[in-house]
Amino acid sequence: MATASSRSSADLLGQPFADHSDLFRAHAAEQPDAVAIADEAGRLSWRELDALVERVAARLQAEGVGRGGAVAVVGQNSIAYGAVFLAVIRTGAAVAPLTTSATPEALAAMLADSGARHLFADPAIELDVPPSVQRIDLHALPAWMAPAGTRATPVTVAPEDPFNIIYSSGTTGVPKGIVQSHGMRWAYLARTAVYDRQSVVLLSTPLYSNTTLVAFLPCLGFGGQAVLTKKFEARRFLELSARERVTHAMLVPVQYRRIMALEDFDRFDLSSYRVKFCTSAPFPVELKRDILARWPGGLVEFYGMTEGGASTVLVAHEHPDKLHTVGRVAPNSEMKLIDEDGRELPPGGVGEVVGRGPMMMNGYHRCDEASRAAEWFDAQGRRFIRHGDVGRFDEDGFLILMDRTKDMIISGGFNIYPSDLEAVLAAEPGVVEAAVVGVPHPDWGETPVAFAVLDGVESEAVLAAANARLGKTQRITALHVVDQLPRSAIGKVLKRELRDRLARS
Predict the structure, then answer these.
(1) 199 and 346 inside one domain
(2) What is the average per-residue pLDDT within 73-99?
(3) For residue 6, what pLDDT is reported?
(4) Packing angle between helix 20-30 and helix 182-191, nearest 10 degrees?
């Protein structure tokens, strides 16, 4: 158990488990005047942030929020959003950050699923809130929270207590809520021990995403500064990096690609960078090489799931010959490959990734069947999380990802991995980016169809050249030219949308 105390931040960080709120209180006491959080409108010191969080938490507690409850929040990144997030966990309740990209109907369903009775929201968010839920304007937070000087009642939390409920970022249907515990979040913090009080992390992905939280919370946890932006714009990101003397960043591949494509990239002073992180989507090898060559500081790629399981880490600047991989299994994690029947594969096999470690979800919120489907148990009865990815380990233990199991194409009895075809397309001159999906075929069951963003080349020529390099069973049936590939807020290509386009045509 962890309780509010006067222990130092160093003491708390040395524990196998502690409460994030105790840690943030310690930083506020030890470095009250240091900047803790900033957005493009302003910044707060640790003393100011702590006071704000206490006042929001106290008001929530006065209205009955505490352990076992949940509070929802939806909006763009801001100091107010970050403060509400920290305030909710200070009450012992779980935070349910909702996706801004969802439809009003999906938002309403997520809100209902969370069980929250309070919703903090930007005024621009369109959502019919039921009478049982109080909607609080994030822009008017000072008028709602408890009076100045009010302190929240300290709460005891256990490692298994829900910390947050993360909803997946699909554009249709109701996403499943992934329940992450206090213990899981503490494990994330301990794993990311690269920050200190001089760290400044710049975040351009939304706070409802686990991608953002795995940088936001650990940086604050080690006493650093978090800089939040409402939306990503490549040139503005570099301007802020130089102005704020940013040391760390968490970006997704599509953001890196847009930054590196700027003609004046090299004029920005990025010398303050120590390390940059990447996760959430396939990271092209050539893009990694370009970043290593031109952007100061190290480059680290994480592979894992919001649901948890095992993680891999590629320290790209230390292993430039392994850029085609996602790295080795992280310490204290275990990863296996299984076949379609759930049998563990021997070394050298290609199969579905399953993993276990200190960062594993409690389960899907109010969805026991889906939770069971996401689990795999080994011969000793140990619980693993199914990652849904197909991969293999090379001779040095580095994981090479093939595809999502649901994206694998079976054509005429042959397994086709879209990533193999996408790599061939991407190597063709004039192909900016490409994605391949499987579509029904009367003779073969499925057949691969490509979508690509092209620059100065004809689709017929690209298709012919790619097919000439592919095996007979891999050949692409058609190539559709698009202005851009549909992506989620964190840069994942939404292949379901591509399949839907074909189904409608």
Answers:
(1) no
(2) 97
(3) 78
(4) 50
